[in-house]
Every structure is written in C-alpha cells, then in structure tokens.
Description:
Layout: H1 9-16, H2 20-27, H3 35-48, H4 50-70, E1 72-76, H5 90-104, E2 107-111, H6 116-122, E3 128-134, H7 139-147, E4 152-155, E5 165-169, H8 171-184, E6 190-193, H9 200-215, H10 235-251, E7 256-259, H11 262-275, E8 284-286, H12 292-297, E9 303-305, H13 308-324, E10 332-335, E11 338-340, H14 350-358
Parallel strand pairs: 1-2, 1-3, 3-4, 4-5, 5-10, 6-7, 7-8
Antiparallel strand pairs: 9-11
Amino acid sequence: MEKPKKVTMQEIADRVGVSKYAVSKALSGKAGISSATREKIFEVASQLGYLEQKLVKRAMAGKQQAEDEHKVVGILIPNIRSQNRESGYWGKVLEGVFKGLETCGLASVLITDDSPRNFNMIMRPEGFLGIIGIGLIDTAMLVELRNVGIPFVLVDHEDELVGSDSIFMNNYDILRKQVKYLIGKGHTHIQFVGDWRYARSFADRWSGFKSILEENDFSYSPNAALLRVKPTTDRENLDLILTSFSQLQEDGLPTAFVCANDKIASLCLRAMQQLGIRVPEDTSITGFDNDLDVALEFPELSTVNAEKEALGVKAVETIMWRLDNLHMPYEKLLLQSDLIVRGSVNAPRFSEAVAGQAQ
Length: 359
C-alpha cells in the first residue's frame, strides 16, 4: 500500500495564490498576514491534510517520551462567559474531566488563558499528551495547538476552521422533545428566548425548536428582540427582556416561553416578577441545563438535565482514543439527556390557547 503523499507549503501556496513565505507566516501564527488570507491558507492546509500530517509526525516522534515522562493532559477553559470552576454548569464538566483523568492515572494542568502567545511563553508543547478544551475557545489558540501538533478534543464547542473531535449534548433532539411536551399540554403560542448565535449549542436548540413547530403546522413569528437575549446580567440585556415582555403583555402573552438555557430563563422569571406575570398561571416557561445555581433561586423551573459530568468523562475517553487513532476521521459525539418537568409548566388557560391559535 502506497504511503500518502507528503503535502508541502508550496502546494498550499499554489492553491491559495500566495507565496510560500506567506504560508509559513500564517501557519506559524506570525503577524503580517491579513485575517482573510490567513483563514484561506488554513482552510486549504486543512483540506490537503497538512495539519494532520504534522500532528502524526509529532506524535510518532514524541508520544513514547510523553507517555513515559509527562503523562499530562491540559484542560483549557478560558475564564470568559462564566466559564470557571465556580459555575454550576462548567464546574460539573470539570469534575467529570478530573474524574476521567484520575481513572486513567493521568496528571493535568488547568489553563484559563487561550492566548497563543501566553501559552507558548509558559507551556512546553512537548509536555502534553493532549488538550481538552471546554467552552468557547479562540480560533487562534486552536490553530496554534494544531500547529505544534497537540491533539485536542472540544467540549460544547466546535470551530469551522479547525477540525477536531467534539462532544455535545444532543441539543436538537431533546429540544424537540421539550416542545412536543408543551404542545401535548395544549400550548400553541410559544416563543423562543435566546441569541442562537451565542453558542453552537444554542443554535442546535433553536433549530430543534423551529423544526417541531413546522412539523405541527404551527404559524410562528419569532420575537426579534427575544432572539437577541444573552445569558448575561448586564443592564442592557435585562432592559431588553423587560421591554419585550411589556410589549407582549399588550399584544397577547404567549402561552409558553422556551429559553435557550436556565440562565436566560432566570432572567425572564425576574422580569416576569417585576411585571406581575404569574408562572404557570399566565404563562409557562422552560430552561435547559439543570443549572444548580439557577435551581437555588427558581426551584420550580422545568428544564433539561444536561449530563455535565458525563461530558467531561467522555472528553477524557475521546482524547485517549484519539492518541491511538490519529489517522481516523474526527468525531462529533452527542450525549442524550432527559426532561425535568417541574412547576413552571402547566396547561394554558383556554382564552390564551385560543389567542395563540388565532395568531
């Protein structure tokens, strides 16, 4: 069987229409290349298998040394968007990673800065077996990891420019199940709350929401303002929710709100309290994640039990599998989850159901 042809920088340069020097600068993360050209170079390099070629070469040369002397897995969780150990969501994912690493007898180092420059100043790439990335991670950092040949797996995140193994909850299917439950309770006027562009998991939940309404021939006019709501507590975000809900009260309150996650649902519940909207008497509401922090404040919130610890454990299993299967295609793994129905959901009042059908 013939060996795969070695891809060169010159081939990449010819495909993109730039110099070999430009390709070298782009792939090494150096300045002086426009972002558009850098992205094109990286896209072509990925398509030709150049980056995977570098990864395999590095692994074959240094894997044994890493296994014998280092046995360190980096846990990359940038301290942004509440991605930290104190979070009721991300903290549980981390616990799962630590549990998986302990089972494998592997040491770890926690990295909270996704700047390639800082990473290279402090860390020795040859000291890593692999990296487990948790949450949103900057593309430049993922490019750097690929450039230095460190295998990595991403939890609750994926990057269109940098192929990798990734692990998510099955957001699409469980959101469909959640909306099916609401429809079964008699809800026909349902609004989605959350910026679906915020994260890939939000986008999948939004797609699941729309698909089940379409299958049931429900006419749906999304509230544009509610589709801009982010899981943050800044004043502008809270004002957006209050203004939107005030308008909906005047025009006809939906019988149910499906929120992109529990944090957004908690913001909505606070706004409803201020406006005198009763749950579930006036409207129902659901969240997603089964966030322990939110449950302390709103224990009656119906939600989806995202298996956070299982995400972390599966990430460790995946990075270990990848180390032994560097030539295999990347995988996207989806973990199943369950609905948790609590007191925030009830059948709609008849008058509201009729109003929803009319719209």
